[in-house]
Amino acid sequence: MSGAGSPALDVDGRGLTITIVAGSWHDEITNGLIAGATRTLEASGADFSLVRVPGSFELPVVAKAALDAGADAVVALGVIIRGGTPHFEYVSAAATDGLTRVALDTGKPVGFGLLTLDDEQQGLDRAGLPGSKEDKGREAAEAAVATVRALRGLTAAG
Question: What is its pathway (predicted)?
Answer without folding.
Answer: Cofactor biosynthesis; riboflavin biosynthesis; riboflavin from 2-hydroxy-3-oxobutyl phosphate and 5-amino-6-(D-ribitylamino)uracil: step 1/2
